[in-house]
Write a structure and sequence with these properties.
Layout lengths: L13 H23 L4 H16 L6 H9 L7 H7 L8 H11 L5 H13 L3 H14 L5 H7 L5 H13 L5 H5 L8 H13 L6 H6 L6 H13 L6 H10 L4 H13 L7 H11 L8 H14 L10 E3 L2 E3 L3 E7 L24 H14 L6 E7 L3 E3 L5 E2 L2 H12 L10 H5 L3 H4 L8 H8 L18 E6 L11 H15 L2 E6 L6 H9 L4 E3 L3
Parallel strand pairs: 3-4, 3-7, 7-8, 8-9
Antiparallel strand pairs: 1-2, 4-5, 4-6
Helix pairs in contact: 3-5, 4-6, 5-7, 6-7, 7-9, 8-9, 9-11, 11-13, 13-15, 14-15, 14-16, 18-19, 22-23, 23-24
Length: 531
C-alpha cells in the first residue's frame, strides 16, 4: 500500500523517529484490528435485540408476550428503538401501548430523546402522536418545543391536550403565552389541560382565564379553574371565588371552600356567609399571607375545622362529608367480607345485626341512603369477582328509589366466604362459589367511573358522577389488573379527564397503603374502620 511507504516522523532525530514510528505503526495496526473486529458485546446485544424484535414481534399473539418483547428494548440508547416501537402505538392493546410509552420515556441520552421528537414531527396518526408525547412528558424531554407548539392547533383535541402536557413538563421560555389561547379551546379536556398546566408552572398568566372559567358550562373545567386559583394564590381571586360559591352546587362547593382557605389562610370552608362577612370587612386592606405565614396558619385551620363543618346539605358516609349531588357507593362483597371484625369494641355500640364486616357495611350504607336529600343522585355498585350495579345510571334520591336501594343493600351477601369452604372441601365447589368471591378492585372502580373506554383514550370522559365512596376489606385478587400499582395507574389514567373525587374506606387486617394512596391521588379522604 502507498501508506506503507510514508512515515510522518522523517524529520525527527533517528532514535526518536524510530521510537515514534514504532508507536505510530502499533496504533495504526490496533485501529485496523478494531475496524474489522466485531462490535463490543453490549453494542452487538443492543443491535441484536432490535433486529430480533423486528423479526419475532409479529409472531406473538398474546398480550403478555408482546409486552415482554417491548420491555426487552428498555435501556438501549438508540434512535432505532424509537423508529421500531413508534408504529406499535397504534395497536388496540392498552398494556402494549403502555409498555411502549414506558420504554420511550426512559432514555438518558440526547440522541434517542430527540428521535422521539423527530418521529413525532413525521407522524400523522393520532395514536402515535399521543403516545410519543406521553413518553416525552414522562421523560421531561427538552428540545421539542418547535414541534409541540405546532401541534397546539392540531385538529385532534387529544393531540392538542398531549402537546400542552409535554410543553409543561419541559417548558421552553415564554411558553405561557403560547398556552393561554388553549384555555378557551372548544374541547373541555384541552381547557382543563391548559389551566392545569399553567397552574403547575405557577404562572400568573393563569389567573385571568381561570377566573373566567369559573362560569364554564362543564364542571370539570370549573374544577380546574378552582384548582388553578388555589395553586397560584392572588387576592384578586377571592371575590370571584366567593361569588361562585354563592352559585355553585354539589362537590365544587367544597373545592371552592378549600381554595379560599388556601388563598387567605382563613378556614370558613363552605360557609358562604362567613366568607361574605370576612371579605366585606377586610376587602380594602387584606393581603394574602406568604407561604411561610400560610404554613403556620394551617395548624390553626386544623384546630378550627370542626367549627366550620358543613351543616346540612351534605352526604355523610363513615364520617366523610361531601356536598356532592352525584354519588356512587362501591361496596366489597367478596368472601372475606363474611369475616368477623377483630376490634369488636369499636363496633359494639353501632347496633349492627352481627360483627361480620358485611353486616356493618350494609347497615351503615342503609343509614346513609335513608338520609340522602331528594336532590342527590346516587347509585350503588356491589362487587366481588363480578361487578353488579344496582341501577344502570344515577337516580334521584326520592322516597321510592331510597326504599328500593335499601332493600337491595339488605339482601347483599358475602360471596364464597369462609362458611362455604366446607362445601368446597366436600367437592361442592360450585355451591361454594369460591371463584366468584374474589376482589375485582379494578373492575369495580372502572364501573364506578363509567369508563366506557380504556384510560385516557376514552373519548366519553364526561361522566355524570363526581364523587365515589369505595369500601373494601382487601387488596385486588382478580380482574384485568391485580397488582396495586397497576390498579393505581389505570384509575389515574381513567380519572385524569373525569376529575372524580374518590373517598376510600378500609375494613380488615390487610395493609391499607393502597387504599390510602387511592384517596390521596384523587382528592379524597381515607378512613380506616379498623380490623
Amino acid at each position: 500500500m502507498l501508506l506503507c511507504n510514508v512515515s510522518p516522523f522523517t524529520s525527527l532525530p533517528p532514535r526518536a523517529a524510530r521510537w515514534f514510528s514504532i508507536a505510530w505503526w502499533g496504533a495504526l495496526v490496533a485501529c485496523a484490528l478494531l475496524a474489522f473486529a466485531p462490535a463490543s458485546s453490549a453494542r452487538c446485544a443492543e443491535h441484536d435485540s432490535i433486529a430480533d424484535f423486528k423479526k419475532y414481534f409479529k409472531q406473538y399473539k398474546d398480550t403478555p408476550s408482546r409486552v415482554e418483547a417491548v420491555r426487552s428494548l428498555e435501556g438501549i440508547e438508540e434512535a432505532a428503538v424509537v423508529d421500531t416501537l413508534a408504529p406499535i402505538l397504534k395497536l388496540p392493546e392498552p398494556d402494549v401501548v403502555l409498555a411502549v410509552v414506558t420504554v420511550l420515556s426512559k432514555f438518558k441520552t440526547e440522541a434517542p430523546q430527540q428521535a422521539v421528537y423527530a418521529a413525532l414531527a413525521a407522524a400523522s396518526d393520532e395514536a402515535i402522536r399521543s403516545g410519543l408525547m406521553q413518553a416525552a412528558t414522562l421523560g421531561k424531554y427538552k428540545g421539542g418545543a418547535e414541534t409541540l407548539l405546532k401541534l397546539l392547533t392540531d385538529k385532534s383535541w387529544e393531540v392538542r391536550r398531549r402537546s400542552v402536557e409535554a410543553l409543561c413538563a419541559a417548558p421552553p421560555p415564554g411558553v405561557e403565552t403560547q398556552l393561554l389561547p388553549l384555555a378557551g379551546d372548544p374541547e373541555p379536556a384541552v381547557r382543563c389541560a391548559a389551566l392545569d398546566g399553567l397552574a403547575a408552572l405557577k404562572s400568573q398568566s393563569v389567573l385571568e382565564p381561570a377566573r373566567a372559567a369559573l362560569g364554564d358550562a362543564v364542571w370539570q373545567v370549573r374544577a380546574s379553574a378552582v384548582g388553578a386559583l388555589k395553586r397560584v394564590r392572588h387576592r384578586d381571586s377571592i371575590e370571584p371565588l366567593i361569588a361562585r360559591l354563592a352559585l355553585e352546587e354539589g362537590r365544587l362547593v367544597a373545592d371552592i371552600g378549600d381554595a379560599l382557605n388556601e388563598i387567605t389562610g382563613r378556614s370558613f370552608g363552605t360557609r358562604l356567609e362567613g366568607w361574605q362577612q370576612f371579605w366585606g370587612q377586610y376587602k380594602d386592606r387584606f393581603q394574602i399571607p406568604t407561604d411561610e405565614e400560610l404554613a403556620k396558619l394551617r395548624e390553626r385551620q386544623k384546630a378550627e375545622a370542626a367549627k366550620y363543618k358543613p351543616q346540612g346539605g351534605t352526604t355523610t358516609y363513615h364520617g366523610i362529608d361531601t356536598p356532592s349531588r352525584r354519588v356512587v357507593f362501591v361496596i366489597d362483597c367478596s368472601g372475606s367480607m363474611e369475616t368477623l371484625v377483630v376490634e369488636k369494641e369499636r363496633f359494639q355500640d353501632g347496633g349492627y345485626p352481627s360483627f361480620q364486616r358485611i353486616d356493618i357495611v350494609k347497615t351503615e350504607l342503609v343509614r346513609t341512603i335513608e338520609k340522602l336529600e331528594p336532590y342527590v343522585e346516587f347509585n350503588i355498585i356491589a362487587f366481588a369477582t363480578g361487578v353488579k350495579p344496582w341501577k344502570k345510571e344515577l337516580v334521584k334520591a326520592n322516597v321510592l328509589n331510597k326504599s328500593a336501594a335499601m332493600d337491595w343493600v339488605k339482601k347483599l351477601e358475602a360471596i364464597g366466604g369462609s362458611s362455604k369452604e366446607d362445601l368446597a372441601q366436600a367437592g361442592l365447589s360450585s355451591s361454594a362459589n369460591l371463584e366468584a368471591g374474589k376482589t375485582n378492585t379494578h373492575g369495580a372502580l372502572m364501573a364506578a367511573l363509567d369508563a366506557g373506554g380504556r384510560g385516557t383514550k376514552d373519548k366519553n370522559y364526561a361522566c355524570a358522577v363526581d364523587t365515589i365512596f369505595f369500601l373494601s376489606d382487601g387488596r385486588p385478587t382478580v380482574g384485568d389488573y391485580v397488582d396495586p400499582k397497576d390498579v393505581l395507574r389505570e384509575v389515574r389514567n381513567a380519572n385524569a379527564l373525569r376529575k372524580v373525587v374518590l373517598h376510600t374506606i378500609a375494613i380488615g387486617e390487610f395493609q391499607k397503603d393502597f387504599m390510602e394512596q387511592l384517596a390521596r391521588e384523587h382528592g379524597g379522604v381515607f378512613v380506616d374502620l379498623g380490623r
